[in-house]
Amino acid sequence: MNIDFTNKKTIALLSAVGVLAIATIAAVVVLLTLPGKAIQVEDFSGKSVEEIKQWATEKKLADSQLVIDYEFSDTVEKDKLISQSIASEQKLNKDSVLTVVFSKGPDPDVEVTLPDFKDMTEEEIEKFVETNKLLDVTYEYAVDEKIEKGKFIKVNVTDTVVKRSTMLIFTISQGEDGTGEQIIVPDFSDYTKAKITNWAKANKVTINWKEEASDKIAKDKVISQDPKAGETIKTGDKITVTLSLGKTVTMKSLAKMSKDEAKKWLNDNGLVGEFSEAYSGSIEYGYVISNTPEKGDVKQGSTVKVKVSLGKIKLESFIGKKKEDAENFKKKVNNSEANLTFTYSEVESTEAVGTIVSQGYDSGTYLSPGTTVNFQISKGKSVTVENKAGSSEDDFKKYISGLGLSLGTRSTAYSDKAAGLIIENETGKKAAGSTVWYKVSLGAFSPAAGDFENKTVAEARKIIENANNSGAGWSFSEGASEFNDSIAAGNTFGCSISGKTVTCKVSKGKGVTVKSYVGGAAPCSTNSCSIDGVTIKQVYQSDYSDVPAGQVVSQSVDAGKVVSAGTEITLTLSKGPRPVTTAKVPDAPLTVYNGTSYDDCKAKIQNAFNNAGFKNLSFVKVTGEVDNKDGINGVVKSVSVELGAEIETSTEIVIEIYSAS
What we know:
The chain has about 650 residues and is α/β, with parallel strands linked by helices. Helices cover about 15% and strands about 35% of the residues.
């Protein structure tokens, strides 16, 4: 078709079409540049992760606008909402991010100190378990004749400090009645785990829990029970209950997926992604490097750790910068598994000392993780430092300044050189502006013996130690320890010098001559006292003697010995003669004690004589044919003391009793 562009109508028509097109394009541009419609956020309290994801889908939120996070909580039940970053009734714009935080339940790694459960009841143990959020607790029941019903018997751990996740099995007493009550097992199909646990506690039954994956039975619902519903058991018995883990997901490698693709796969399969970033030499930026777990069956709702690539590391230029700048860069990228290694060497250069003059790779080079980068650092132009031993310190300072160097560490030492002269100094090539250490002579160490008099041994040794720290090469020796009335105990006296050795006696303080106490009365009115410059301790003999009571019979330190003031001396005192007690021998006729047997008769006599105060009794069985030809049994033959007599209670009394056997 041919169009006549010279026709005025054609031109007018084309103009109108052009204006319309321009207006349309403008309208589209305006629409595209207008901000997206704000979304009113709901109150997500009581909602599950899946319900919030469904809300986000309905509201057409971008994946980046919804972040689901988890943290431990002692107050919020597991899988329940802790917080939301944007409150209900507020608006979520297209550039905003809504973060919802769900509870992971109590932190299983928190440590708990266990009390002494002895004498605690089951109810008290249950309260402790609840208060401290213990996560794996089972109760078992056992017959025990000694421990009251409902009281603690044992627990399966010996540690006093355990983690919340530690498996604890408490054994509770059923008392001495081990028959147990008859219980009909209910159908647990519609029971929650908590309801089953409460039923087991109420009926003193132990639950053995098992878990299995199931595509048919909902998560946390009962798959099976053994014994079955309707069967009869007794208190103390065990029931095995298998709970459903719900549907499982067969995990696969997400490597080389984009981050968004990995998120979608995890969301579609009911899994929670925990994303981190790391550098990679083989995986492109924004794509998955690895995931944990990588394979196997996992429960829906489980967390999968996903590592996403940051690509290779782009090296910056550090020419003219300091080593610290390079190290800060390395630290930053190594936090994301760059694993870079930086090496440094010094080279002579006209550049400022300490600045980087070259690096192994050019600025902007992309490096694979694990790469080693070599840097060269300027040490300036070097100068040679000579040995100036024997020079004065002032001359040495001028020499170092003239080389363009600075004075470094100054030390001193005793030597054969005069005080103030250089003993030694750092030599060889040195970079411009660097420091030089040097050592100055203190002259010879020449102490006097009096410098060590009347000092503690530690103080005297310290004088030598300080001198030796400066190269003196002296020693200190302790001489004999002697008593000295004018020098405090532990202090030095009589010091002498031989060569480079100082020898000092050590005072034992003022001496005390021990007196003789044997044969005299106890010097102390109590068990101990301080007299005569010593400490006296008094003890009594273990047995009685003929020495009058309270008289000293021995002393632990011999009389005349010189000892330190306050020395403890033990004096042994006599208990005196043994006290004599008397009592009246029972005067009842011996026939009173006759019994049905030897043992019966012996018991009667022993009881009567013991009650009278006589304990030293000897019994003789009389069984011979001559003395007991008629086979008399349980009859008293004789007593070795006079009945009714007043005698010492310690007297041995011999009683003869007839015995037919």
